[in-house]
Amino acid sequence: xxxxxxxxxxxxxxxxxxxxxxxxxxxxxxxxxxxxxxxxxxxxxxxxxxxxxxxxxxxxxxxxxxxxxxxxxxxxxxxxxxxxxxxxxxxxxxxxxxxxxxxxxxxxxxxxxxxxxxxxxxxxxxxxxxxxxxxxxxxxxxxxxxxxxxxxxxxxxxxxxxxxxxxxxxxxxxxxxxxxxxxxxxxxxxxxxxxxxxxxxxxxxxxxxxxxxxxxxxxxxxxxxxxxxxxxxxxxxxxxxxxxxxxxxxxxxxxxxxxxxx
Length: 262
Prior knowledge:
The chain is an alpha+beta fold. It is built from six helices and nine strands, in the order ββααβββαβαβααββ. Strands 1, 2, 3, 4, 5, 6, 7, 8 and 9 form a nine-stranded antiparallel β-sheet that branches.
């Protein structure tokens, strides 16, 4: 059959990215406790397209990703992008895989078990001699305002927030360990199920650990800078957004460390 995509293009416009976007696919990722977990990813895959090429072969992206769907772990991500780049005769390949990640958490007093959802993403690119890979993790947390606590005769306003970290991959780490570091940097983590005794503990724990958005970012920053892996992160960013309970706006803070390329 005639292959229109392989025809020459005469307009002289190279494309930095061409491919598939918004592909939803079942995948298997690594899990520290259960070894693996099944989830559903949203996938973007691209290659660069020289000026003389009319189009790229969309089906090949899907065929290659299908092979890796049962092990889309950090160390396999580069292998997948390398294969995409090779099979599509491209100079560079790009990929983003976003997925919900679930952890079974026990309530702090009663031990009641429930599942907490976190949003994660792998994002990378591969060329002939250069490659980079980032892992992003979004963690919902609780924060209690230090100022409100200091000026109030009783109580203090508190709210949920989201901490987002983006890490330049340098050595294998567990997603669960990063989540724990973020929750420890806040006034407390969140739970899907709490009994009354658990609610009392969570409330009092937050009161004893007040945090501004700025505090959460700085504490997370320090935890990631000394994260227990063989090769420390060369670059990372941390942002915290508190969904204020007594203001009609959110509180926000951001910091980054190091250089994005090694």
